[in-house]
Amino acid sequence: MRIDVLTLFPEVCEAFFSASIIKRARSAGVVEISCTNFRDFAEDRHRSVDDKPFGGGPGMVMMCGPVFAAVEDVEARHPGPHTRVLLTPQGQRFDQSIARELAGQTHLVVICGHYEGFDERIRLGLTPREISIGDYVLSGGEAAAMVVVDAVVRLLPGALGDEASTDQESFAQGMLEYPQYTRPQVFRGMRVPEVLLSGDHKRVEQWRQEQALERTRQRRPDLLKRRAQE
Ligand code: ADE
Question: Kind and range of the H or E element at 51?
Answer without folding.
Answer: strand 50-51
